[in-house]
Amino acid sequence: MRIATYNVEWFTSLFDRRGRILDDAELSARYGVSRSQQLGALGIVFTAVDADVFLIVEAPDNNAHHKTVEQLEAFARYFGLRQRRALIGFPNETQQEIALLYDPDVVSAVHDPMEGSEEAPRFDRSLKIDLDVDDRLDVVTFGKPPLEAVLRTKSGREIRLIGVHIKSKGQHGELDPVSQVRLAIENRRKQLAECIWLRRRVDQCLGAGDAVVVLGDFNDGPGLDEYEQLFGRSGLEIVVGEDLPPERRLRDPHVRLRRGHAAAQPSSARFYLKDAGQYFSAMLDYVLVSPDLCVQAPAWRIWHPFDDPGCYKVPELREALLQASDHFPVSVDLSL
Question: CB neighbours of 12 closer than 8 A, spacing ≥ 6?
């Protein structure tokens, strides 16, 4: 089984107010790319990756006028994709939903949020945690509640999947240096709290004997910014369980590569920095799997247009990956 995560930049802008696909020459939300070009590129990418299950980060908006599931399934019909069923968890207010698109001939999927506990409540609720060590509990909520789903293969094997879009540390608007530092630290605290909450859920799942896949856009990684030193470790390392015994540690080889701070680093996203006049690469997207799913040598792949030889040597796919989004798919092949 192939499971992939894909952050599609402003997928919602490729649909009109009533949820109909906009395949025209008007500009999409991606700079310099038309809606028709982005749509066509997405069709090529989804077909090439050919995952049985896609976690779509920044899926089309879910509101009173149009539904995420209907829009994704319309997109699948438009391009004749075998991943023709969609699933959404808790909608959010950001116009960027977390959803699944999957092949019902291979696997079934149901939204199955765990009620949890006071230490790890359901993801659409709030967590009380001391973020700044002042002996007062802060109240944390997810801006984008993770999607909890149960996948069931035709043979009856079950996997608990948790799809995430962890809060970004990006800053918007003009801020003085002191305010920039304050906001960066506040964002990092919030991000770490979300990751602690997520790790507690992982512990609950592993304790119940579940096979677990946690995937999505973490907007984080070891060594990604200077505030990691202030808090000791990254949110990603918390979710993985870097300081825990091997049987409780999630796996993705790209976490280890980032942690090593080697000269050559993997990347799953590419952003243009206007001030610098060049592109910046970052490893933000991961597919973390529990140890029991690693018994038969899973194979991870970042579908990077320049770093992956198979993508680079196919010009149509290479260009599609660049036009479709500022992130690239990350997949894992599991033997179940």
Answer: 58, 59, 60, 61, 71, 95, 96
